[in-house]
Amino acid sequence: MKITHFKNIESTNQYLQRLLDEGIDITDNIVVADFQTSGKGQGCNVWQSEDGMNLLFSIALDMSFLKAENQFLLTQMVSVAMIDVLKKYLPEESLFIKWPNDIYFNDKKIAGILIKNEIKGMMLGTSIIGIGLNVNQTYFDKSLPNPISMKMITGKDYDLERLLLEVYKSTSLRVYKGQGQVSIADSYINHLYRYKRWALFEHEGIVKEMKIVGYDRFGRLVLKEKNDREVVCDLKEIIFRI
Fold first, then answer.
1. What is the enclosing helix (H) or strand (E) of 174?
2. Sign of CA dihedral 91, 138, 53, 156
3. What contacts 24+ positions apart, CB below 8 Å, involve 146-153?
4. Does the predicted TM-score (pTM) go above 0.85?
5. Are residues 110 and 86 in contact, defined by beta-carbon separation less than 8 angstroms?
6. 95 neighbors 104 (Cβ within 8 angstroms)
7. Are 104 and 79 in contact (CB under 8 A)?
8. 199-240, what's its fold?
9. C-beta of residue 16 within 8 angstroms of C-beta of residue 25
10. Is 174 left (phi over 0), alpha (psi -120 to 50) or beta?
11. Which conformational region is residue 228 in: left (phi greater than 0), alpha (psi within -120 to 50 degrees), or beta?
């Protein structure tokens, strides 16, 4: 494990991606930053964070043992690893995974995950996992819809370096140490936000009541309408409404 720390960087994911593109072995490299000028979430979303208050980092892992068609399993592994860490500090019954890989405390977002997978034929190669965890920040820009931090929940300050090492250890255990696919799938579904609950979703421009009933082998979300019709959605095809 090698840790590189930056006070300020464009993006920890982009930094590791450049090294990978240059042919450098980045396996088990961790890049952490106090501030990112171009931090990204899923799609085109921007990750906003106050300088030095939160955990912003990327991990590079060798995923050459995992078939590319099963890459959603990595999403599940990392999401469950985050729950494993956060439940030491926060009530587990309030921790959820909002599909595919945002971490929620009740109805508010406490962490986000962005994964970039290298594909080598039928298998994965190196995966770059970017994580943003709201830790000690207590004020967020009003343009953000529903942020929350660990400190906002408990009133306590947290050691960022300790949390970093805990997340790395938890992720490595889930990925490398044989904690099996069934266990991962069970943990993921047991923490899935709005699972088997009727709630408002927007699909194809229409807001309607649906409930999440699971996901398919490609990681697409499966929902059911009131008339029992099944709806299968990929990223950006479904919006969670309050």
1. helix 160-176
2. negative
3. 146/107, 146/108, 146/109, 147/108, 147/109, 147/110, 148/105, 148/108, 148/109, 148/110, 149/53, 149/54, 149/110, 150/86, 150/89, 150/90, 150/110, 153/90, 153/105
4. yes
5. yes
6. yes
7. no
8. SH3 type barrels. (2.30.30)
9. no
10. alpha
11. left
Secondary structure (3-state) at 91: coil
The domain spans of the chain are 2-190, 199-240
Residue among 191, 189, 199 nearest 219 (CA): 189
**From first to last of its 242 residues, what are the pLDDT tens digits of the chain?**
899 999 999 999 999 999 999 999 999 999 999 998 875 555 445 556 788 899 999 999 999 999 999 999 999 999 999 999 999 999 999 999 999 999 999 999 999 999 999 999 999 999 999 999 999 999 998 888 899 999 999 999 999 999 999 999 999 999 987 555 668 999 999 999 999 999 999 999 999 999 999 999 999 999 999 999 999 999 999 999 98
Tokens of 32: 């952490």
Q: Retrieve residue 53's tokens.
A: 């208050």
Q: Around Cβ 195, how many Cβ atoms within 10 Å? A: 17
The rounded distance, in Å, linking the Cα atoms of 140 and 143 is: 8
CATH homologous superfamily of domain 2-190? Bira Bifunctional Protein; Domain 2 (3.30.930.10)
